[in-house]
Design a protein that fits this description.
Aminopeptidase; 4 helices; alpha+beta; binds coenzyme A; seven-stranded mixed sheet
Length: 177
């Protein structure tokens, strides 16, 4: 298993992972499958200091992917990134998500980010546990903000710091790197 940058040749594989999740879970709040063009546009929309990663098996199969990207569209949010991680159904529970998470955290910290945020479907207890194990804590639960097939869905917001706790922190922070 290697973790490398996600490239456009991976888009058909990640579109299949995404569409399987749309069809079989509430992880993604869409009801219809998306196209390869849609996922290509998503990849191209990432900024230079965002990151998109693929987890690739020895035989070249894309087992999962992940990304960090802009959290809200205002410059003042620069210390914060949102993340997404998706592992293909037949590859879950084998450490792929953990390997992707480790690299996302390393990339976000290396680009000077201080906070990571995840927005998770409230019923996705497996993912909430996975994020807790990675140092995230739940900071909000927003009841009924989503709908899928007529069902109301809650959004759980989780976040973790990327900087070590400083007991002498006076509240001032470094400027944007
Ligand atoms: C959540 C997810 C990214 C974790 O990746 P993974 O490769 O399955 O996880 P790892 O093998 O590294 O770690 C296993 C942990 O993942 C969590 N997990 C969540 N869904 C899981 C699943 N379907 N199968 C196995 N583990 C799952 C569990 O907490 C598990 O820990 P446990 O052994 O204590 O129960 C992955 O299961 C996934 O893509 N699930 C569906 C999509 C999703 O929920 N994405 C996150 C959206 S916010």
């Amino acid at each position: 298993m290697i973790i490398r940058d996600l490239v456009e040749a991976d888009i058909p594989s990640i579109t299949a992972i995404y569409n399987d999740l749309i069809a079989t879970t509430d992880v993604i709040w869409l009801e219809e499958p998306v196209t390869v063009e849609d996922r290509t546009a998503w990849l191209r929309s990432l900024r230079p200091d965002d990151a998109a990663l693929a987890a690739v098996d020895d035989d070249g199969t894309v087992a999962g992917y992940a990304a960090i990207f802009e959290f809200r569209a205002k410059a003042g949010y620069w210390p914060t990134v949102e993340l997404t991680i998706m592992v293909g159904r037949e590859h879950r529970g084998a450490g792929t998500g953990q390997a992707l998470m480790d690299e996302l955290i390393a990339r976000a910290a290396a680009s000077g980010r201080e906070v990571m945020v995840a927005g998770i479907d409230g019923g996705n207890t497996g993912s909430i546990r996975f994020h807790e194990r990675n140092g995230f804590e739940t900071v909000a639960r927003m009841p009924g903000v989503g709908r899928k097939h007529g069902r109301a869905l809650d959004l759980v917001l989780m976040q973790r710091s990327l900087t070590p706790a400083d007991p002498e922190d006076d509240g001032s922070h470094a400027p944007r790197p």
